[in-house]
Amino acid sequence: MVTSKATRVLVLILFLLPPGYSSTGREKISLSGTWNFCVDSLSIGDLDYWGNHGLDEKPSNNVIVPHAWNADKGLERCWGVCWYQRTFEISSNQFSKTARLQFDAVYHDAIIYVNGNKAGEHYGSGYTRFFIDITPYIKVGTNIVTVRVDNSPSRSNIPFQKSYDWANDGGLFRNVYLVLTQPQAIQNIHVTAEPNEKTGVAKIKVSFIDISKIHSSKIKLNALIVEENQTTSKQVFK
Length: 238
Hints:
By secondary structure, this protein is mainly beta. It has one helix at residues 50-53, and strands spanning 2-5, 9-16, 27-30, 33-39, 61-65, 81-90, 98-103, 109-114, 117-122, 130-133, 141-150, 176-181, 186-194, 201-208, 220-227, 235-237. The protein is built from 1 helix and 16 strands.
């Protein structure tokens, strides 16, 4: 955590890597667009291990993600489980990176499989962005991601059960990305500001994707604070 005096400022974090570390930035690759889509109307996907075996032999059709299946003709009242699947490529250079899937929103429960392996899950909150680390499951070449989505009312979802007055549209209804970074990449920067003219304080908390890859004796973080939304852009703190 870094503490400094500032007022009406923009905080920039400089992540300085020592010799031997790669300085290649992160790649953010869109996985929106065409996905294979299958309605699990008989609730047999879990019993038949669709997440592990994929949807290649299942009756399905192509949809464009972002996608809400309740907007499709004939599925207006479909409350239950549906499945999505698509492929993506990993090069030999990308294989050494940390790979995460970014889902901007899945309504409202999701289980994610990569190459037949369960990589993660996200329950009960269909409007929040989440990330799934898929590094252990990727391979060089063609990879398969399969997503089980459930919009059934439940006691764990937000809002509770059926206590809402909007459409219960299930699906991958916001964008999906493949995010590739170096293992030492920053995950989040959280700034808590306490403005008070010349005695204002900015508390900066930095989290990393994989803290086990961070060696405090080799990594240095610098905070650069400059004015924002003013006629000048003076440096306030470094």
